[in-house]
Every structure is written in structure tokens, then in C-alpha cells.
Amino acid sequence: MPTSDATPAAGDALTRTEVAFIGLGAMGRPMAANLAGRFPTLVYNRTTSVATQHAAAHGTTAVADLAEVARAQVVCSCLPTDVEVAAVAGALGPALSPGTVWIDHTSGDPAGARDIAQLLAGYDVGYLDAPVSGGTDGAARGALTTMVGGDAEDLAAVRHVLDAVAARVVHVGQVGAGMAVKAVNNALLATSLWAAAEGLTALAAQGVAPEAALEVIASSSGRSFATETLIPDRVLDRSFPHTFALALLAKDVRLAGSVLAGAGVDGPVLQLVEQLTGAAAIELEGADHVELVRVVERAVGVELSSLQ
Ligand code: NDP
């Protein structure tokens, strides 16, 4: 239900919705800040000082005790994987009021999402898996895309909350479908990043400047987010900002492998990308996802740089 369609009385009720956000990481911090612009927003983070700082900076209310989250009607989470969400949901579930809806923005395992939904259903709490794309920049602008799995009725009940963080909300199916779409999307991101790194380093080794090659690709059929944005903005200037951990991308590609396996699809291309990305995450511990380009650069002995 878009906010703009609401009557004034319904509008009041909508803005009185108390929302809680669990997990103030790179994505959670800006998402919770955007929620606070529209709703009273409680924030909980494993490291409490992060929540306290968020409250001071964005007008949210920090809670140190997870149980305090239970007074919200809508609970949002954005944690590394479904495993952490399951642990939090297990601890918080009994305290939640019936009718609460849990929106999980984590990129996790579809099967894990279905387990969490079942656990929460036992407390009469609705669950939507609603992973997001658009990165930290999209999160800051409240312009994410969210792919939602779960009941249409639950989605309609919290659509006004999702509208505070996302410019595009797509209902992709039942619980777990959002996680599955997200995993496949990120496997495509990893694939195009590896392929672009290989192609551009080969061209550079033969004397073609990366900028010239990228200019051609930008108006040709081989273009991708990797060639249009990630390599021009983060690799050529060697800035490699830390916005999305390589380990999290490796997790997503692995999950995409399970999605394919669950559907009986062989997927040799994604299997190789899963292997490469998993190995890179171990080799470059703590790195940002775009740094997988460095693995190719080292193997070829060429840097994709505009700084020479
Ligand atoms: P971060 O690593 O920046 O943040 C992780 C958050 O989870 C922190 O708040 C951390 O708390 C908390 N956390 C970690 N372990 C636990 C635990 N065991 N129990 C409770 N809380 C825990 O991750 P991101 O924000 O980058 O990513 C979050 C999710 O969003 C992931 O699933 C990721 O794949 C997805 N995503 C990320 C994008 C990005 O560009 N970064 C884009 C789209 C999706 P603490 O502060 O205590 O460490």
C-alpha cells in the first residue's frame, strides 16, 4: 500500500508504526537512518556502541537489550547470513506480539529463510525475505531494489516501511524466493567482474589502455555493472573502497550454487565462479568484493590503472 494512497487518518497510523532495525552494518546503518526519517525507529546492534552512535547521528532509539525490540510492530534485520538471523529470531521470537511482521533484508539461504518463517509463524509473526540490491550508495539514497518472498498480505501490511528504504519493491514469490533471486543476481555480478578483469588485463597486456577498452564496451553489448561502474570508479583509480565484503559475495555465489542444485541445473559456469570467488575470499581476507580483480592482475602481471 503506497503511502500516497493512504487517507489522512490511515497516514497517521502508518507514520506511528514503530519499526526496529537489527544489524547496523554497511547496509543497515543507512537503511535505519532512512526509516527514522518516517517512523519511530529502534536500533539494535551486536556491538552496542554502534547503535548508540547511530541514535546520536540519526535520531533513532538505541536498545542494548534485544528483548526491547519486541515493542516494534515491524522488525527489520540485515545480518551477514540467515544463520545469524535464525539465532536472533530464536531469541526474540517468544517476546514478539502476534501480528508483528519481520522483514529480513539479509542475503541468505532460501531454505534458511523458510525455517525462520516457520519458527516465527509459531508466534503468529509474519516473515518476508526481502534482500536488497543497490549497494551502500543505494541504501544511503533510500533507492534500493528489494526482492520480496512471502505472503502478499504481509507485504501489503509493511509496504509503507519498505518504501522508506527502496525505490523498487518486487514480489518475487513465496518465502525464500527473494533470497534465491538475490543469490543469482550476485552470482551474475561475480561472473561479470571476473570476466571483465580477465578481458581487460589481457587487453592491457597487449597495449590497449583500460579507459579506451571501457569506452568501447560502455556502448557495446559486453557492458555490465562491472565495466560501467565498478572498474571505472574503483579499480582504475586504485581506490577499492570497502562497501561490500568479498567474503559476503563468495557466500552469495555459493548460495546461487545451491539454488541451481535445488533445481537440478548443472551450472558449470557458476560452479567455476563459486570456486574462484571462494578461493579469492580466503586469499584476500578482509577485502572488498571488487578486489577480486587483484587476483587476475597478479596472475597476468598487469594493473588496471589510470594513474600511470
Ligand atoms: P556488515 O559486515 O557491514 O555488517 C554486518 C552486521 O551484522 C553488523 O551490524 C554486525 O554487528 C552484525 N552481526 C555480525 N555477526 C552477528 C551475529 N553473530 N549476531 C548478531 N549480529 C551480527 O555487512 P553488510 O551490511 O555489508 O551486509 C549485510 C547483509 O546485506 C549481508 O547479507 C550482505 O550480503 C547484504 N548486502 C550487502 C550489500 C553491500 O553493499 N554491503 C549490498 C546488498 C546486500 P557488529 O557491528 O557487532 O559486527
Write up what this structure looks like.
- Helices cover 52% and strands 12% of the residues.
- Helix 8 crosses helix 10 and helix 11 runs antiparallel to helix 12 (268-283).
- The protein starts with 7 loop residues before the first helix and ends in an 8-residue tail after the last helix.
- The protein has 13 helices and nine strands.
- It is globular, with a radius of gyration of 21 Å.
- Strand 4 (74-77), helix 4 (82-92) and strand 5 (101-104) form a beta-alpha-beta unit.
- The strands form two sheets. The protein has a six-stranded parallel sheet, with helices on both faces. The protein has a three-stranded mixed sheet with strand order 7-8-9.
- With 308 residues, the chain is an alpha/beta fold.
- The relative contact order is 0.10.
- NADPH dihydro-nicotinamide-adenine-dinucleotide phosphate is lined by residues 23-28, 45-47, 50, 78-80, 84, 106-107, 132-133, 135-136, 243-245, 248.
Which descriptors would you attach to this protein?
single chain; about 300 residues; alpha/beta; 6-stranded parallel beta sheet; 3-stranded mixed beta sheet; about 50% helix; binds NADPH dihydro-nicotinamide-adenine-dinucleotide phosphate
Helix content: 40-55%
Assess the beta-strand content as a share of residues. 5-15%
Shape: globular
Backbone CA Rg: 21 Å
Distance between the termini: 53 Å
**Sheet bearing the most strands, described?**
6 strands, parallel
Structural class assignment: alpha/beta
Bound molecules: NADPH dihydro-nicotinamide-adenine-dinucleotide phosphate
Strand order of the largest sheet: 3-2-1-4-5-6
Taking pLDDT < 50 over at least 5 consecutive residues as the criterion, the unreliable ranges are 1-8
User: What's the order of the H and E elements?
Assistant: HEHEHEEHEHEEHEHEHHHHHH
